[in-house]
Each structure stands twice: as C-alpha cells, then as structure tokens.
Design brief:
Helices cover 37% and strands 20% of the residues. The chain is an alpha/beta fold. The chain has one domain: P-loop containing nucleotide triphosphate hydrolases (Rossmann fold, 3-Layer(aba) Sandwich). The strands form 2 sheets. A 6-stranded mixed beta sheet has the order 6-7-8-3-9-10, with helices on both faces. Strands 2-1-4-5 form a 4-stranded antiparallel beta sheet, covered by helices on one side. A hairpin with a 2-residue loop joins strand 9 and strand 10.
C-alpha cells in the first residue's frame, strides 16, 4: 500500500472459537485474512458480536488463534518467549480506562509498565515526563487518577501504553464511556500520534464519525471480514451498512434522504462540511 513502509500486523486464515461453547458453536472469527501497514489508521466496524474485540485481542496475544496464524512484525503470537515483544509492539487501550489505571498518582500510573523493565529510575522519570507533556498531562502528574475526567483518564491510559514505545495502538471503543468533549480529546490525541509519530492505530468503534477519520475501514460480520476500503467508499455504502444494522455518518444519512427528494448531491459525501458545501453550491446554481 503506497505511503506505508511495512506490514506490522497480519492475520492468515484465522479462525477463533471461544473455549467451552460446545461442538456446535459458531466461530467468533472465521477465515480472516488481513494485513495492516505501519502508520495506517484502521477502523474496525460491525454489529455487536461480529468479532471486532476478538480480533484486537488476537493482535495483542491476549488470545491465540484456534486455526491460522497471527503475526506481529513477523513474529507469531503463539510463541511464549516473544510475547513481551508482541505486547510492547501492540499496546491495547480498553473501553473503560478505570480498568487500566492501577496506581495512586498519574505519574506512577504512566510509569507502571516501565518499572518491570531494566530501566533506571532517572530514565523512567524522563520518559514519563516526556510522554505526559506529549499528551498534555504534565499538570496532572501528582493527581490521583480517580479524580480525573473521563477524557483525562483515557489519555492517562494511552500514556501508559505510549511510554512503552509501541509501534501500534489497539483501541477497543475507547470513547464509548466518554462525553462529547472527552471523545474529541481522545480521538484528536490518537490521530496526532498517528500523524506525527507514525504509530499504527487499529480502532474498534460503533461511531461512524470516528471511523470516517481513519485511512481505511474494515467491516466484520458474524466473524467474517466482509469488506475493506477508504471511508468514503465504505461509509457511503448505505445499503450495505443498513443490511448489517449499521449507520453511515450523519452527513451520509442526510445526503441519502435529500437525494431521494431530488437533490443532485455527490455520492461520496462523508462529513458535515462537505454536505454544507454541496448544498451551498446547489443554491448558487439555482
């Protein structure tokens, strides 16, 4: 793929069955083939139970495939000796930041992962301060995490992953429990990391406006990869999305309704600004 340097994560014909679900259970994932390049921002969308979170956990080696193979920078995730390297390469951010905050201050929380490595206290302190400054957390270093806002907590969770210098961040609906301001905080932070530091992002989301900011959108349904492509192709495909009980962005949905009423709008309107500009252009021509 043009503009990207190397494959960072790869799934080869991956099946996954959750243990103990019986012989007739459907697989959580079935025959998934997927590559993600270093520096990509990928959004994973699909109905509940489609396998999105399972796929993220396979990339982080929290789960291993029932069949097939997952490779992280060419390393199989089934090799126990290389698990630390896999998990440092792909850091995972969960839906509820409270599940990742373990210390009594923000500074200690960010430092937690580094303390398990052979790094001096001075180096840990330097890395924590550097990462906190990068994410706008420097004034909060002495604060107890439980007193922070939802957006601040999620940024602390991201800092705890980022300080380990991952090549890829896996995000499982990181804004689902946040208010609109917190959502913007987190998404802008991660997008900035993707742009400035070339960190790969694989983002599970139910929000089409979040998926619209990705480089590529991947659709899963019933454990299978249905389609993949640029947001303007995937999120503008209203019949496909609605067949899976998914929605396009607000601009996509409104543009589709306006077309039915006879407005000759472009087919690949994705964002509100594009819709407004198109309507203004029609008004000027009328």
């Amino acid at each position: 793929m043009a503009g990207y340097s190397a494959i960072i994560v790869e799934a080869k014909n991956v099946d996954y069955y959750y243990p103990g679900e019986g012989e007739n259970a459907s697989p959580a994932l079935s025959g998934v083939n997927l590559t993600v390049q270093q520096g990509e921002y990928v959004a994973l969308i699909g109905p509940n139970g489609s396998g999105k979170t399972t796929l993220l956990k396979l990339f982080n080696a929290l789960l291993t495939p029932t069949n097939g193979e997952v490779l992280v920078r060419g390393i199989p995730t089934t090799n126990e000796e290389t698990l630390p390297e896999v998990r440092r390469t792909c850091g995972m951010i969960f839906q509820n930041p409270d599940n990742q905050l373990v210390a009594t201050t923000v500074e200690e929380d960010i430092a937690f992962g580094l303390e398990n490595l052979a790094i001096s206290s001075a180096e840990i302190k330097r890395k924590v301060k550097e990462t906190a400054c990068l994410l706008g957390l420097e004034r909060l270093l002495c604060q107890p995490p439980h007193l922070l806002s939802g957006g601040e907590k999620q940024r602390v969770a991201i800092a705890g992953i980022l300080v380990m210098e991952p090549k890829c961040i896996l995000m499982d609906e990181p804004t689902a429990m946040l208010d609109p301001a917190g959502c913007r905080e987190v998404i802008e932070t991660v997008r900035e990391l993707n742009h400035r530091q070339n960190i790969t992002v694989i983002h599970v989301t139910h929000f089409p406006e979040e998926a619209a900011n990705a480089d590529r959108v991947i659709v899963l349904n019933q454990g299978q990869l249905i389609t993949s492509g640029p947001p303007e192709d995937i999120l503008a495909d209203i019949p496909m999305l609605h067949s899976l009980r998914l929605q396009g962005t607000a601009a996509v949905e409104l543009a589709a309704l306006l077309r039915k009423d006879g407005y000759p709008l472009p087919l690949k309107i994705l964002h509100k600004r594009e819709l407004v500009d198109s309507l203004c252009s029609l008004e000027r021509k009328s």
